[in-house]
C-alpha cells in the first residue's frame, strides 16, 4: 500500500526471517530455481531480454485487464453466484486430460520446463491458456491469488524463448518469471531481489533488470502500477 513506516515494515521483516529460518532448519539451503549455468552479457542476450520484456508487458497487461473484466462478465450472466464457479470448473475438467499442467499453481510444470521436458508448442499453449483461464476462474468465484499464475505465465513464456534461442539454457525462464511478477504486483526492484534469491545467479538478476523495466513501463502505461491499483481504479478509487 506504499506505506513504508516502521509500524508496517517491522511485522513483515519478523515474519520473513522467521519463516526463512524455519524452512532452512527443515529443508536446508534450497532454491526454487537452482540455475548454475554461466551466462555471458552479450548483445544477443541483451536484445532477447528486450524482446522478452516487450512480450511480458503485453501479456501481463492482458492478464491484469481480464481479471476484473471476467468479474464484470460473471455479473451479467443470470446464474446464482454460488453456481458460477461451476462454469470454469467444467472447462478445466474438460481440459485437464490434455493439459493437466493448468490445474493448481502448477509448480510441477515449472520444474518440468526447467528440466527442458516441455515442448515449444506446449509452453506457448500453457502460457496463453493460463492468461485466459486464471481470470476466468477468479472472475467466476474461485478463491485464489495472482502471484502464482503470474510466475507460471512468465516461466512458460521464458521457457519458450529458452527452447527457441538458448537450446537448453534456463536464462529466460527465470527472467520471464521475475518480469511477470514485477508487473503484476507492482514491485520491480523487489522482483530483481526475489529472482536473485530464487536462483542464486547474479547474471540472471542483472539481465532481469532490463526485461522488468521494459515490461513494467508497458503495463504501467496500459493498465497501471499493479493489478491491485487497477482493481481499485475499476471500483472508482484513485490512488495518488
TrEMBL record:
Q: How the protein sits in the membrane? A: Multi-pass membrane protein
A GO molecular function annotation here is: chloride channel activity
Q: Where in the cell is it found?
A: Membrane
Q: Which Pfam families match?
A: Voltage_CLC
Keywords from UniProt, A to Z, are: Chloride, Chloride channel, Ion channel, Ion transport, Membrane, Transmembrane, Transmembrane helix, Transport
Q: Which residues cross the membrane?
A: 12-33, 45-66, 86-103, 109-129, 136-159, 171-196, 203-223
**Per its UniProt record, what SUPFAM superfamilies does this chain match?**
Clc chloride channel
Know the name of this protein? Voltage gated chloride channel
Q: Which organism is it from?
A: Polynucleobacter kasalickyi
Q: From which lineage does this chain's organism come?
A: Bacteria, Pseudomonadati, Pseudomonadota, Betaproteobacteria, Burkholderiales
Amino acid at each position: 500500500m506504499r506505506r513504508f513506516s516502521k509500524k508496517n515494515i517491522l511485522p513483515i521483516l519478523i515474519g520473513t526471517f522467521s519463516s526463512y529460518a524455519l524452512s532452512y532448519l527443515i529443508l536446508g539451503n534450497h532454491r526454487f530455481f537452482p540455475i548454475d549455468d554461466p551466462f555471458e552479457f552479450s548483445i544477443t542476450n541483451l536484445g532477447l531480454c528486450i524482446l522478452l520484456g516487450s512480450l511480458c508487458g503485453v501479456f501481463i497487461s492482458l492478464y491484469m485487464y481480464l481479471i476484473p473484466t471476467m468479474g464484470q462478465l460473471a455479473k451479467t450472466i443470470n446464474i446464482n453466484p454460488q453456481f458460477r464457479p461451476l462454469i470454469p470448473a467444467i472447462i478445466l475438467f474438460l481440459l485437464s486430460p490434455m493439459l493437466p499442467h493448468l490445474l493448481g499453481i502448477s509448480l510441477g510444470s515449472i520444474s518440468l520446463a526447467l528440466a527442458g521436458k516441455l515442448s515449444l508448442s506446449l509452453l506457448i499453449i500453457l502460457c496463453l491458456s493460463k492468461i485466459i483461464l486464471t481470470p476466468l476462474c477468479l472472475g467466476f468465484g474461485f478463491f485464489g491469488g495472482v502471484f502464482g499464475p503470474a510466475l507460471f505465465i512468465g516461466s512458460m513464456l521464458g521457457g519458450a524463448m529458452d527452447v527457441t534461442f538458448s537450446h537448453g539454457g534456463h536464462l529466460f525462464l527465470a527472467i520471464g518469471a521475475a518480469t511477470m511478477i514485477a508487473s503484476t504486483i507492482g514491485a520491480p526492484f523487489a522482483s530483481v531481489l526475489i529472482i536473485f534469491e530464487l536462483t542464486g545467479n547474479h547474471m540472471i538478476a542483472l539481465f532481469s533488470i532490463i526485461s522488468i523495466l521494459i515490461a513494467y513501463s508497458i503495463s504501467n502505461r496500459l493498465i497501471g502500477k499493479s493489478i491491485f491499483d487497477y482493481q481499485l481504479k475499476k471500483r472508482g478509487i484513485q490512488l495518488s
